[in-house]
Amino acid sequence: MDMATLIGSPTEPLTLNAVAKISQSLAEDLRGVVFTTDGFTVEDYFSLDGSYLVEFVDGRLQVLPMPDYFHQAIVGWFYVALMHYVKPDPDSRVAFSPVRVMLDADRYREPDVAFMLAANKNRRHRAYWEGADFVLEVMSDTNRDHDWKTKRSEYANAGIPEYWIVDPDARTVTKLVLRDRAYVDDTTAREGDTLASTVLDGFSIDVGQMFREAEAAA
To answer: For residues 29 and 24, what is the distance between their CA atoms, to the nearest angstrom?
Structure first.
């Protein structure tokens, strides 16, 4: 069962208005139970604008678990680092969650960090991006398989060239590079290591510095 699936009572399915009232503070209680509904549309999904993280998969809405401060500090660190990287190229873009990324017509995810090269700027829209060139997810204790297995498969199927997974507990960053529509475990970097992007030429991080500064910011 998907750890991020939104709930609904089998006898009294939640309405779209009820879903819109759900806050992030309830996300942990909601994850892991199948939502009972006839199915939502992409238009329903785009109508949601509350203070929660919601993804859309095959007519289902999925609420993600609420991130902790360390998680958010890591996301913020990467966003700032990528903003410095992209500064010389004003047509490239970096975004952080919540930002909708369309993987296919029936699947929208909200990566923690997403990057689009200038060459693909035509795939950026005000409401969503069509894919991305680089995505990053920070794993949560309660939702590890969602990032490591589910999204790994989905991002590969969507043709996203590079996917980084940050594990705050193990203090590692794994770089996955797309080859033949599947990711390979390219590098797992630890404190003391430098990790360089394959797709973003010239972008690299000091893994230990990232964790130390994010921890201090949290």
So the answer is: 10
The answer to whether 75 and 128 are in contact (CB under 8 A) is: no
The sign of the CA dihedral 205, 208, 212, 214 is: positive
The Cα–Cα gap between 132 and 123 comes to 8
Question: DSSP label at 41?
Answer: -
- Amino acid identity at 60: R
Domain 69-217, what fold?
tt1808, chain A (3.90.1570)
Q: Read off the pLDDT of residues 142-195 as tens digits, 9 standing for 90 and up.
A: 777 788 888 999 999 999 999 999 999 999 999 999 998 899 878 899 999 999
The domain segmentation of the chain, as residue ranges, is: 16-63, 69-217
Measured between its terminal Cα atoms, the distance across the chain in Å is 32
Q: Is 62 helix (H, G, I), strand (E, B) or coil?
A: strand
Q: pTM of the predicted model, to two decimals? A: 0.78
CA distances from 188 to 110, 138, 214, 218 (A): 23, 14, 19, 24
Distance CA 98, CA 130 (A): 15
Residue 149 CA to residue 194 CA, distance in Å, equals 25
3-state secondary structure (DSSP) of residue 179: strand
Cβ–Cβ under 8 Å, residues 94 and 114: yes
C-alpha–C-alpha distance, residues 109 and 56, integer Å: 7
Helices (H), 121-206: 144-145, 151-157
